[in-house]
Amino acid sequence: MEIGALFYVLAGFAILNSAFHIFLSKVAYYKEPEAQGSLKKAVSVIVCSKNEQENLKVLIPKLLEQDHPNFEIILINDASHDDTKNVIEDFRVKDQRIKMVDVVNNESFWGNKKYALTLGIKKAVNDHLVFIDADCTPNSSQWLSIMSKHFTTDIKIVLGYSGYKKVNDSLLNKLIRYETVLTAIQYFSYALHGNPYMGVGRNLAYTATRFYEVNGFMDHMRILGGDDDLFVNQAANSENTTVSLNEDSFTSSQPKTNWSSWWKQKKRHINTASHYKKTHKRSLGLFYISQIGFFISVILGLFFGLNWILIVSVILVRYVVFWVVMSKGFSRFRESDIIMLLPVLELILLGIQMALFISNMVHRPKQWN
What we know:
Elements: H1 5-28, E1 43-49, H2 53-64, E2 71-78, H3 84-94, E3 98-103, H4 113-123, E4 128-131, E5 136-138, H5 143-149, E6 157-159, E7 162-164, H6 171-192, E8 204-207, H7 208-213, H8 229-235, E9 241-243, E10 251-253, H9 259-273, H10 278-303, H11 308-332, H12 342-362
Parallel strand pairs: 1-2, 1-4, 2-3, 6-9, 7-10
Antiparallel strand pairs: 4-8, 5-10, 6-8
Helix pairs in contact: 1-6, 1-10, 1-11, 2-3, 6-12, 9-12
């Protein structure tokens, strides 16, 4: 049986992609140790809200129900033009733990979420900050205690997980949840390997001290988005960062329900990723190339008559590794219902990511909400 150069290309991409998945298995099989911090530390919960009047009516009671002895809630009204300010005011007069920051746009930082968040951080009286988005809810009353307990003398940044609520019979919803868990598997595994590169603002904690040490968001203030991932990319390292994988520390968000709004959201996310450190961009880019290269090599192999037994053998090896790692990871993040669709969702997402990169080269988004 003659083995040509195309087979070696296919095998090379398969080996490279499988190696990445083995690297990403860190989070799937990780046994999280007991957090060493104190449960009694004072915490400031920060929520940035822009036109979120209905979501705040759901979130604020959930925050007030948190089983934590000492916390305040900083609610930021980021120049909303709905009833967000009045909703915050109504809750504020009922509970002294709630404080409001009312943001008025200025010419220098028009529509910039980082500007609003900075004002909220300055308002906080506590050094330990925990962030959640207005359209999220904690999965339990222990969320705040578990997230904040990870803070120690050395640990300044805690990466949490935020999934999306399920919508039955929706391909978009399955794709959103697939992409969310895949991203979580990546950034949690990198952090556990001592190389943190991002977090999500829907469930993230860090100290005000660390925020000011890196001059807050100033290095990327003009970049749309990145108040979470770009900040972590800049401020996190192997010594000061940990992860929280306890299910009670997860949060859940309302997913986009139409393709257009999700497309706009992903365009913003991809735009910020282009500003990661070079080492992270290379590594994440190589993973993407290994996926694309594998599928293109399979197609070319079939087109040019490469022995089908060789092709099937390589495909089987690659998918065994893929399935073992991803199915375990998706179970860990409570998304077992889409495990059977993983190969299909992988292909769909790859095609969309390619289209997003091309789209962002033509037109970049200009508002955070």
